[in-house]
Design goal:
This protein has 711 residues and is mainly beta. The protein has one domain: Maltoporin, Chain A. It is 6% helix and 54% strand. It has five helices and 37 strands. The strands form six sheets. The chain has a 22-stranded antiparallel barrel. The chain has a five-stranded mixed beta sheet with strand order 3-9-10-7-8. A three-stranded antiparallel beta sheet has the order 4-5-6, with no helix packed on it. Strand 11 and strand 12 form a beta hairpin.
Length: 711
């Protein structure tokens, strides 16, 4: 269990200066001291079509998000988007949620200035805390341990929309995000980067690798150090990251890649605050900006985490392939937060002090057998597998009686100490899944995909305050079925049905354990990929329903029953790729009608909270030619529609439009770039709660200037 006496550990400026000073020098030394005789053709194990590659420009040909064996993306009968390596390089996102900002169906950064987790919704369902995977293995938040991934160590991000019960077991109805880590390449490369930006944020990063002469062993080292802040004046945004990869490929049929990383973060929690005229009487005036842009020195979010694992593949013959992915991760979290919790009176803001000291770990392994065969004129791929995950969180949570701050003279000029513990427990969740998926491609262009999975989940909670231990066992059978039809002219319509579930810990008034919440989705869509063009257009309509949702027990107060239901219906449009040889684009639009269809909370037929009805975005990137060759100009616009702050629909959150810009110039081995998000420094509320509980501000303008060199 984590020790409560852990203190704030901010990376020293001297360490950052040393890292920055050696970043480009180390890359240069790598280039100078390594003598390589290159073959005429460099062979890499993951080509541009591979689901492990970064894609081609803004498009990708294959994905593992819809089928574990990896199939052409156009043959996945589900909505899938890929944030490619080129998009990550052009837009330079700071967080995973930022990388998803131009993806249809995704509402990113919807908790504003909040670095605790990667927070986003997919098709209106909160997915960031439950639906993040890395290299095909679960990496969801456990309690207050976020297991965040830095985009610098990412090759690409696949987004699958809709329930994922067949492939991954428990998961939110909106879908999942699979982060593909950078991995070794069988070639020599090196890059160093220096950055400086808003809030005196300085960052240095390296990415380098090599292979032996026989091309059977390759390695990669990725590192980053950041020292800075954010819009909250006395907040931190510091990170130290080191990641490595080693690939051993003794033959063309056998490959093992070891991946590991170590990461320290010193970040800031979110800050809800009341709004004059909404949460309290406007006659008392708005909160001074100096107060709104600050926090109490008590606030702290420090994490230390690491992971180690491997991905192994062996082709027994041309038909049979064996794979196994395994990873163990740990994170230690120290979290202190003095947070606003509503108006205690006409002018008094209520603040509570909250603490978390916990250790979290995840062990995950997925073993797969893939069999490919030709059945007459049909090509068939069958994948069967067994996966197992154990997640443990062990720690304490403290909660204080509270502090009052007057809106007419607000100040954090008072001391705050750690409160007493109200939670002291260890929770262990074991999840086992047995699954099978089959993909059949017929000669007439039709492809059928089906899947079935049985999941078992066991949760054990050891409560050290009451000296009791409780267990809960759940199981679920989920299926999926879909089809695509390649019409031969670039058009590929698709249709699918998919199921999912999430577990619920606890019991009803009569002691009956809660059943899993179930989800199902019906979806139809159309993809269009012009022949010979690096361009993909898609459209889809969907209907997602969740049942067995917890809602108030109408006969027994302070208890719940499972008669709730929510339904999200809507449509999406997406365009990705090259419009011309020099102009690339990403366009997305989403419409979501999110309704609470069954509830005992007095909100039946209301719109679900924090779900914008409309989302739209457009990103354009133009590469100049001729005398301006090397110059690139990118820019984007993001629209987030109105939403409700609560299920009671008592408070509306206004819509907003944000603009982003990215300019870069490359010459020889150098590249200089300037990135700006929220270009016009739009002041907006990212989200709000019920009246009197305030809103959280969206992220303001952020500028980043970077210089990089490749060797």
């Amino acid at each position: 269990m984590t020790n409560n006496s852990i203190t704030r550990a901010r990376p020293r400026v001297s360490k950052l200066v040393l890292f920055m000073g050696t970043t480009l020098l180390s890359s240069a030394a790598f280039a100078q001291d390594t003598t390589i005789v290159l073959d005429p053709i460099v062979v890499t194990r993951a080509d541009e079509a591979s689901p492990l590659s970064g894609g081609t420009g803004y498009t990708a040909e294959e994905t593992t998000a819809g089928f574990k064996g990896g199939v052409p993306l156009v043959e996945v009968p589900r909505s899938v988007s890929v944030v490619t390596a080129q998009e990550i390089a052009d837009r330079a996102p700071v967080q995973i949620e930022d990388a998803l900002a131009y993806t249809p169906g995704v509402s990113a950064s919807n908790w504003g200035v909040d670095d605790r987790y990667d927070q986003f919704t997919i098709r209106g369902f909160d997915t960031g805390s439950k639906g993040i995977y890395r290299d095909g293995l679960i990496q969801k938040s456990i309690n207050f341990s976020g297991f965040k991934t830095d985009p610098w160590m990412v090759e690409r991000i696949d987004v699958l929309r809709g329930p994922t019960g067949v492939m991954y077991g428990p998961g939110e109805a909106g879908g999942m995000v699979n982060i593909v880590s950078k991995r070794p390449r069988f070639e020599t490369f090196a890059e160093g980067r220096l950055q400086y930006g808003s809030h005196d944020t300085a960052q240095a990063a390296i990415d380098l690798g090599d292979s032996n002469a026989a091309r059977t062993l390759a390695w990669r080292l990725t590192g980053l150090m950041r020292n800075g802040g954010n819009e909250v004046k006395n907040a931190q945004d510091d990170r130290f990251l080191g990641a490595f990869g080693v690939t051993w490929a003794p033959t063309d049929r056998t490959e093992v890649t070891f991946l590991g990383h170590y990461q320290e973060d010193n970040l800031a929690p979110n800050m809800f605050l009341p709004v004059a005229g909404e949460d309290y009487d406007a006659s008392f005036g708005a909160l001074p900006q100096s107060f709104a842009d600050s926090q109490h020195d008590f606030n702290q979010l420090d994490t230390e985490g690491w992971s180690i694992g491997y991905q192994a593949r062996h082709e027994v013959n041309s038909q049979l392939t064996l794979r196994q992915n395994l990873r163990y991760s740990e994170q230690d979290t120290t979290y202190r937060h003095l947070y606003y919790s509503g108006m205690a009176s006409a002018t008094q803001m209520q603040f509570y002090d909250f603490t978390v000291f916990e250790d979290a770990s995840t062990f995950a392994v997925d073993t797969q057998v893939e069999y490919r065969a030709t059945l007459g004129a049909a090509e068939n791929t069958l994948v069967a597998g067994l996966d197992y995950t154990r997640q443990i969180v062990d720690g304490t949570q403290g909660f204080g009686a509270g502090y009052l701050i007057d809106v007419t003279n607000p100040s954090y000029g008072f001391g705050v100490s750690d409160p007493g513990n109200y939670i002291d427990r260890k929770t262990t969740e074991d999840q086992t899944g047995l699954y099978v998926q089959n993909h059949t491609r017929f000669e007439n262009g039709v492809a059928l995909t089906a899947g079935l999975r049985k999941s078992w989940v066991e949760t054990e909670t050891e409560n050290r305050l009451t000296n009791t231990t409780s267990t809960q066992d759940d199981d679920a059978l989920t299926m999926s079925l879909g089809a695509t039809w390649d019409l031969g002219n670039g058009y590929v319509p698709f249709a699918s049905y998919a199921e999912g579930f999430t577990t619920n810990i606890g019991s009803s008034f009569d002691g009956t354990a809660f059943k899993p919440t179930e989800s199902e989705q019906f979806e139809v869509g159309l993809r269009y990929q012009p022949v010979g063009r690096n361009l993909m257009l898609s459209a889809a309509v969907f209907d997602v329903t969740k049942t067995n949702v917890l809602t108030a027990d109408p006969f027994n107060s302070n208890f719940q029953v499972q008669t709730g239901e929510v339904r999200h219906r809507g449509g999406e449009l997406e365009a990705r790729g090259q419009l011309t040889e020099q102009l690339a684009a990403i366009f997305s639009y989403s419409y979501i009608d999110a309704k609470i269809t069954e509830s005992n909370n007095g909100d039946r037929d209301n719109t679900a909270a924090k779900v914008p009805e409309h989302l739209a975005s457009l990103w354009l990137d133009y590469a100049f030619a001729g005398g301006l060759e090397g110059l690139k100009l990118g820019g984007g616009v993001r629209y987030v529609g109105e939403s409700w702050g609560d299920n009671a629909n008592s408070r509306k959150v206004d819509d907003y439009i944000l603009a982003d810009v990215a300019v870069s110039y490359a010459w020889d081995d150098y590249r200089v770039s300037l990135g700006v998000t929220n270009l016009f420094d739009k002041d907006y509320a990212a989200t709000c709660e019920t009246v009197s509980y305030g809103c959280i501000s969206g992220e303001g303008r952020e500028l980043t200037l970077a210089l990089s060199r490749k060797f």
